[in-house]
Amino acid sequence: MSGLKNCPHTGQPLIVSEFCDSFLYSEKTGVYYYKNARSLSYDDNYFSEEYKAQYGKTYIEDEKHLRHLAGIRLKRIKKYLNPHAFIFEIGCAAGFFLDEAKKRGYKTGGMEISAFASQHARELFNLNVICHSFADHPSGIIKRYITHPIDAIASFFTIEHFSDQKAVFQNISQLLKSGGILSLALPSIGGPLFRRNRKLWIDTHPEDHFADYSPDSLKKVLNLYGFRVLKIYPASYHPERIHPFLCRFPFSSAYKIYADLAKYGDTMEVLAVKTQDF
Q1: Do the domain assignments include residue 25?
Q2: For 4-17, what is each residue's pLDDT tens digit?
Q3: Overall number of domains in the chain
Q4: In terms of DSSP bridges, do strands 107-112 and 32-34 run parallel, antiparallel, or are they unpaired?
Q5: How many C-beta atoms lie closer than 10 Å to residue 127's C-beta?
Q6: Exposed e or buried b for every residue in 164-202, given b needs 16+ CB within 10 A?
Q7: What's the rounded Cα separation, in Å, for the pair 21 and 100?
Q8: Domain that holds residue 193
Q9: Alpha carbon of 130 to those of 95, 98, 149: distances in Å?
Q10: pTM higher than 0.85, yes or no?
């Protein structure tokens, strides 16, 4: 992304951020772009050693927790879908979310760049998962394997990994039917780490994250591709990143209420509906 000069979403010139020349900023959308970002190899090592270094266990060992998150996400989108809707997941990894959706009666399909993870999803859960990058002209490939209209697209902590942000949002809009639901989870610059400890945010910024969104900037970008945001939730709560006393009751409860109202989190979950074709 070192040669990036214009915002992928608007085409307008980017400016060097006020806090670090490694980041470019879009005044129109509020999105930051990391100039030094690079794609990684998402092989079996990524789901074992690298995942374990961050979360204390491998991706496969974290199955129970990931299925719990899947249940929460499916509960949130349930009221927007018919009982037999087709859900397609971008970056479906080992298939835990799709398997939970299938158990609830939904038709499912997914795309995953990792051969290791996609094989796991196909062989263990009998899921229709395509091993391919969603950024690399996926429409024709998906239509060869998927015959159902796509009622919902889900993608959790995947969007930020794509170097071509415009292509990803275009592909999502073109694949999802009108009135369809988009469920996303991604890092947020609308939380305590970015707002209160910018140096730590810069020092710990993942090298494979190409773009950083806030709730407001993501809302603006989704609108460009024919989406209306229904709800944005903080996906994590870190009061200790402001002050340790906020972790104590009743301050912790008050903090959570504030975070929910202000969408104040270092990660976020977003629900949107496609209102028009892009």
Answers
A1: no
A2: 999 999 999 999 99
A3: 1
A4: unpaired
A5: 22
A6: ebbbbbbbbbebbeeebbbbbbbbbbbbbbbeeeeeebe
A7: 43
A8: 46-274
A9: 11, 13, 17
A10: yes
